[in-house]
Amino acid sequence: MTATTLQTLLAELGYEGETIGTALNQEFVRRQDRAETPLHEGDAVEIVTPRQGG
Fold first, then answer.
1. Are 34 and 10 contacting, i.e. CB atoms less than 8 angstroms apart?
2. In whole angstroms, what is the distance from residue 42 CA to residue 25 CA?
3. What is the pTM of this model?
4. What is the pLDDT of residue 53?
């Protein structure tokens, strides 16, 4: 991966344009803040996607 921000990581992983929730090191990151959120070695990224089912 060559991503330096949370937004570029999501694009590299194919999540661009999807409705998702994100957290970095257990802290929620708002959609509008993803482009300004830098990634560093050892960061923990969580991506939550909505699922349907019963």
1. yes
2. 9
3. 0.88
4. 80
